[in-house]
Fold this protein.
Amino acid sequence: MKIGEVGERKLIESFMKFVDMPSGVFPPFDDTVAFRAGNELLSFKIDTFVFSTDRPQGLEPYDVGWKAITAVASDMAAKAASPYLFQCSLSLPPDTDEVDAIQIERGMSEAAKAYGGALVGGDTGEAKDGVIAVTGIGVHVNGAFVPRKNRLALGDLVAITGSFGYVALGLAAMMGKIKLSEPILSRSIQAFKHPIARIESGLALVGLGAKASMDSSDGLALTLHELASLNSADVEITETPADDPLMTFFKGNGIDPLPFVFYGGEEYELVAVFPEHVSREALRELGFKVIGRVKTPGSGKITYEGNELKGEGYEHFKAEDP
Amino acid sequence: MKIGEVGERKLIESFMKFVDMPSGVFPPFDDTVAFRAGNELLSFKIDTFVFSTDRPQGLEPYDVGWKAITAVASDMAAKAASPYLFQCSLSLPPDTDEVDAIQIERGMSEAAKAYGGALVGGDTGEAKDGVIAVTGIGVHVNGAFVPRKNRLALGDLVAITGSFGYVALGLAAMMGKIKLSEPILSRSIQAFKHPIARIESGLALVGLGAKASMDSSDGLALTLHELASLNSADVEITETPADDPLMTFFKGNGIDPLPFVFYGGEEYELVAVFPEHVSREALRELGFKVIGRVKTPGSGKITYEGNELKGEGYEHFKAEDP
């Protein structure tokens, strides 16, 4: 069978039997792989940006570099690690403009610095597609890793950073599928082109007592579903995970927010679970907004306004949408 | 200008201005990037295998995975680091057979284990070309990093592991450019398909007092030239870096060994410089064979049998051979 028919998730399952976790290295199926080096706890990650699938018209080379680093930085943040070193593998078609290649590199370097880390090296070569793999090492400055999998309790708070919806709107606008006016237009385009990984919120996870956390880059519904099902829980969404200006825009234009808010992707926001007693004020100060509650026991069901949301997101290799 | 006209080396030079070395992270332009974590010294690396440029007909999916890990393991060995954790970014065309994708993963996993490390995770997605980026973390178990750049002295010994020539012969045979008979055929094909990174020799570098070391994967002439020019030295080759059976084969068939021995690539052998007083017996026991001497001061000139060898190797993006 061709991998285009198998789909990314099934393929990853087949791959997992070749994955080994030496003692002291943990955990599998998480946003990063953590390991100890001396008295330090580090995180290690690789992520890939492919031009033919991830780069719409209008996404400039600088933005491509920025986003490639942001994806890895966001995974670090979700685990409570501070980004430290990045390296890139930059495979480009030989007819790429030199200026564009340099702008990609500049975008990567500036993003790495913006997140408190550094681009320290890499590899470049020729390919028929543009493929950027970014690898990163992060430092768990608080000494703890916040996992996806943990024991959750009935009533635990589900919180997010930022506002979902802008990124998917920005992509739709760039692809000419929707017409937006200001200020939603600029904010949406910016959210898609220049997302900012939530380092500060990530580093606050440990202090706030987060039980579980995950980067949202595969879409909010899928992220919530994965967090919930991994922990035998359900999640009831009690507040729409979009800010007021965006909800006003959706209502004013008769647009259903659901596909934009729950089924986008590439938001690079954090989705975290906190104990019920954590102060909402403290959460708010560190960039988190409570959007729902955990129900246990459960099976990964996500409900919003009385309806169950499908736990779906974008999947590579699948020819048609699932 | 298109990067196909600029060439890989010039492009890397342009990129270097975006590379940052935070304090405690070193050095730029070496086989790996080393950094301290607590009381440990670690090495960090990324390398890329591209199907359209690196995969000749006949290189099986398992071998592709094996070679992709070997390239990174060999860089670790050249710096005296022990491979520890690997992750891969596996971008494949959607019409790739599932069985082939799994064999690539198996090749990576088995190579990682063979080198004393583990494949602990990765990322997979769709691209128009097959692109495998492998990132690795190694541990400097002897507490030292053996650099490319160091102060060399007149008379220092230049040594290699293994025998050069087989890999380029194997590739030529696989591409139908040369007809070989046994036992050279099997050994050459094996050398190309299933190279073995020199972990044991790499870990012996520190104990043997190595001054400088480099992985040879861009070809022996280029590796020697880079080591020499970086250290303002010349190198005089006094012994052909190929073993007896191979030299007998070249002589018996009237084939000039030079292009195969000096201008191949992907050998994943070590090229190292040792002080003059180091026992050749000790070197031999740990897999090193002395092939020449350092002359200082110099400008990167490599001489062999009275002739100067061009410091050239394979370069991506360049449409024609240099």
